[in-house]
Design brief:
The chain has 264 residues and is α/β, with parallel strands linked by helices. The chain has two domains: 120 residues, Rossmann fold; 136 residues, 3-Layer(aba) Sandwich (Cytidine Deaminase, domain 2). The protein contains ten helices and 13 strands. A six-stranded mixed β-sheet has the order 6-13-11-9-7-8, sandwiched between helices. Strands 3-2-1-4-5 form a five-stranded parallel β-sheet, sandwiched between helices. The radius of gyration is 19 Å and the shape is globular.
Length: 264
């Protein structure tokens, strides 16, 4: 019999996944990154990862799903347990290669420990919208900007930089880096109108080589508000590759602000 554990981070995604499960999963959280609206059954530290894996096994867990936002924790060598200490060299080597490599290494450790990994789309497919125009309308320039943005995000992802960019009239106004999407849109809001031939769009997509069972890009109502504040015409994303926590709320907000929503 399968038993699921949600390895949650900050934000509302873990709660949305719990709501989608027919049976309540175990809720676990990296210390310092508790999910919104949930009380974790267990918190853990990276320095004691081996002990946490053993605890999951003792609870009868067979499947895990990673969901929510985390940042790289600062590791305290004084609290490593002996088994976790043996994992440190491979984790540090992966961290030196970027976030994508780090996440792949974490997934590998869980799989080596006997846990099957489930993606958000497997548990709650309604959170990962398929192709369609969900609000507003798009025009020929939007189609050109989306194609340009797709190429830019693919190039960014190939070097493990970001999962989003803003394009207007074929010009790249900004790309997502470590500070995230909100910071990128805040920067775009400050760009003079003279440098922006048309409204443009923000585009999101997974990195080309990333494991889609973890770290899919996400958008929500606040992203839409920030895009409107940045003077953009809409949001576009790779269909089936981006999490939308509350699509009806996003649709309503986009319609109210005059933006399009396009899963391309």
């Amino acid at each position: 019999m399968t038993k699921l554990a949600i390895i949650g981070g900050a934000g509302g995604l873990p709660a949305a996944l719990v709501a989608a499960c027919p049976d309540r999963p175990l809720i676990c959280a990296l210390e310092g990154f508790a999910p919104a609206g949930l009380t974790p059954d267990q918190s853990f530290r990276v320095e004691r990862l081996a002990l946490f894996l053993r605890w999951l096994e003792d609870q009868g867990v067979t499947e895990v799903c990673f969901a929510g936002a985390v940042q790289r924790p600062r590791l305290d060598p004084s609290v490593f347990d002996p088994a976790t200490a043996t994992m440190v060299p491979r984790l540090l080597a992966a961290m030196g290669q970027g976030d994508d490599a780090t996440l792949r290494e974490v997934l590998a450790i869980f799989e080596e420990s006997g846990f099957a990994l489930k993606g958000v789309a497997e548990i709650a497919p309604n959170l990962v919208p398929g192709p369609g125009i969900y609000a507003g309308n798009i025009g020929p320039q939007d189609e050109k900007d989306a194609a340009r943005a797709e190429a830019i995000v693919a190039a960014l992802g190939a070097v493990d930089v970001g999962q989003a960019c803003v394009v207007a009239g074929g010009l790249c106004l900004a790309v997502e880096a470590l500070p995230g999407t909100d910071a990128m849109l805040g920067f775009v809001a400050q760009i003079p109108a003279a440098l922006r031939p048309v409204k443009g769009l923000v585009y999101k997509a997974p990195k080309p080589t990333q494991d889609r069972r973890i770290d899919l890009p996400a958008l929500g109502v606040q992203t839409i508000r920030n895009a409107a504040a940045a003077g953009l015409g809409g949001l576009c994303w790779q269909a089936g590759g981006v999490i939308c926590l509350d699509l009806p709320a996003c649709q309503a907000e986009a319609e109210a602000l005059g933006l399009f929503l396009w899963a391309r």
